[in-house]
């Protein structure tokens, strides 16, 4: 959450943090105190009472946490707090041996979410004794204990923070298969994006969305771009990493725009401009409240997700990498892609013309044939490789090197048109295209590249 040790402090705007890191702008005491006073007067209900008690208690836990809670309790609509209290959906939470538990507890207590921790993982433990990789991004194995705890108590929704609580994973027990589904970072991005838009409309009935923005890293799912186009708000993609997302959000905000959500596929979510960074605690309360709301409507999280894809079009992704320890060879491979028939001539099709490439953006050289002057808008870095292709059938594919590992990574996503319903067919096309892209662009045999194991 906001005490994140990642090197993102460079973009934290002065107006939000003083030099001891205290939140200023949104959480100063008199404003929320007054607002809550009126909330209590107006609703006179138990719902507000719960939040006020939590806020009074939080005075003991320090100014930053207290202001943070003030922002959260103020942000969530009373009707959703009421649903949380009525629905009593039991959430299982794991802090993955990290720092999340006390903050999640304060937030959940204040908005009426009932939850249980995974006891073995609720407190900081530098040995991370119960998990092989203490990272919910590593997928299922890190959640084994959470599955067991949830099954014992009959809880069907698991929320998992990573140890420094800036990321969030989620799993839901599926009724038909009796299996846990662990949502991908992109699926949660789609769901939270939908939920933030849903709440924005409730808070601003009838207001046009022309000033509303969502921001996302360019290798994440383009589902929000699709939703933005359909619903009439704006979508902006940035380079990977939350410093780019956060900086873009601050830039938009100072231009008078409303940024209501940001995410990256590596389970990082920014659900409020109060913390201009990924934050696993605010993502947790948003998702818990969203789940309570959905269950109160007789719907599961997965059902809502499928509804989103049915309405806007299936978005299926396939990401992987090759290992290559030779930087000279990597440069040769990418240079070959960008000089098919001379400078700036990229492949125009794959599989001998079966699939057409419509646009190319090369953030190593700054070439973008989708821009009138053929110059890329996003920042260019000649020290790393990154090329993105758009195909006419909706496939988006980014080939890039990793700054820190000897990898050539590829990120692909089929953004299918909503009238194409056959998921099996979409998957087949995606796999066929990804195979062809890898063969034709990387020539793994010729170059001795080693595919990701498994
Ligand atoms: C791909 O196409 C979309 C519009 O369909 C455009 O917004 C986007 O910039 C394109 N991306 C690249 C990398 O050319």
Automatic annotation (TrEMBL):
What Gene Ontology terms for biological process does this UniProt record contain? carbohydrate metabolic process; purine ribonucleoside salvage
The membrane spanning regions, by residue number, are 36-56
Keywords per UniProt: Isomerase, Magnesium, Membrane, Metal-binding, Transmembrane, Transmembrane helix
Q: Which InterPro entries match?
A: A-D-PHexomutase_a/b/a-I/II/III, A-D-PHexomutase_a/b/a-II, A-D-PHexomutase_a/b/a-III, A-D-PHexomutase_C_sf
Provide the Alpha-D-phosphohexomutase alpha/beta/alpha domain boundaries. Answer: 82-174, 185-312
Q: Please give the superkingdom of this protein's source.
A: Eukaryota
Record keyword Ion transport present: no
One cellular component (GO) term of this entry? nucleus
Asked if Transmembrane is a keyword of the record, the answer is yes
What is a GO molecular function of this protein? Answer: phosphopentomutase activity
Alphabetized PANTHER family for the sequence: PHOSPHOGLUCOMUTASE 2B-RELATED, PHOSPHOMANNOMUTASE 45A
- This chain belongs to the protein called Phosphoglucomutase-2
């Amino acid at each position: 959450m906001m005490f994140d040790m990642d090197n993102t402090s460079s973009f934290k705007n002065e107006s939000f943090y003083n030099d001891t890191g205290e939140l200023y702008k949104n959480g100063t005491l008199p404003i929320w105190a007054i607002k809550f006073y009126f909330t209590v007067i107006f609703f006179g209900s138990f719902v507000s009472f719960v939040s006020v008690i939590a806020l009074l208690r939080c005075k003991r836990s320090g100014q930053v946490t207290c202001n943070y809670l003030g922002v959260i309790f103020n942000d969530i609509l009373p009707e959703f707090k009421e649903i949380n209290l009525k629905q009593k959906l039991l959430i299982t939470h794991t802090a993955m041996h990290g720092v999340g538990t006390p903050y999640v507890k304060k937030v959940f207590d204040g908005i009426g979410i009932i939850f249980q921790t995974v006891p073995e993982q609720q407190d900081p433990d530098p040995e991370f004794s119960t998990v092989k990789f203490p990272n919910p991004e590593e997928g299922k194995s890190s959640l084994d204990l959470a599955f067991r705890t949830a099954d014992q108590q009959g809880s069907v929704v698991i929320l998992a923070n990573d140890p420094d609580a800036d990321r969030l994973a989620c799993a839901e027990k599926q009724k038909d298969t009796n299996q846990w589904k662990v949502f991908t970072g992109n699926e949660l991005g789609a769901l939270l994006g939908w939920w933030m838009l849903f709440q924005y409309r409730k808070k601003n009935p009838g207001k046009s969305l022309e000033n509303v923005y969502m921001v996302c890293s360019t290798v994440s799912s383009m589902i929000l771009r699709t939703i933005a186009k359909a619903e009439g708000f704006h979508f902006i993609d940035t380079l990977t990493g939350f410093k780019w997302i956060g900086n873009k959000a601050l830039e938009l905000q100072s231009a008078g725009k409303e940024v209501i959500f940001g995410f990256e596929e590596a389970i990082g979510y920014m659900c409020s401009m109060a913390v201009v960074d990924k934050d696993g605690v605010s993502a947790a309360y948003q998702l818990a409240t969203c789940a309570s709301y959905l269950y109160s409507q007789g719907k599961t999280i997965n059902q809502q997700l499928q509804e989103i894809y049915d309405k806007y079009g299936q978005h299926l992704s396939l990401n992987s990498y090759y290992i290559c320890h030779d930087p000279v060879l990597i440069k040769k491979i990418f240079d070959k892609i960008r000089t098919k028939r001379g400078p700036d001539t990229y492949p125009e099709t794959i599989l001998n013309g079966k699939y057409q490439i419509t646009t190319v953006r090369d953030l190593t050289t700054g070439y973008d044939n989708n821009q009138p002057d053929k110059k890329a808008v996003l920042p260019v870095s000649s020290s790393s490789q990154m090329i993105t292709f758009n195909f006419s059938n909706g496939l988006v594919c980014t080939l890039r090197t990793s700054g820190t590992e000897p990898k050539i990574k590829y990120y692909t996503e089929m953004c299918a048109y909503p009238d194409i319903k056959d998921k099996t067919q979409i998957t087949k096309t995606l796999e066929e295209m990804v195979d062809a892209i890898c063969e034709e662009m990387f020539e793994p045999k010729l170059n001795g590249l080693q595919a990701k194991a498994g």
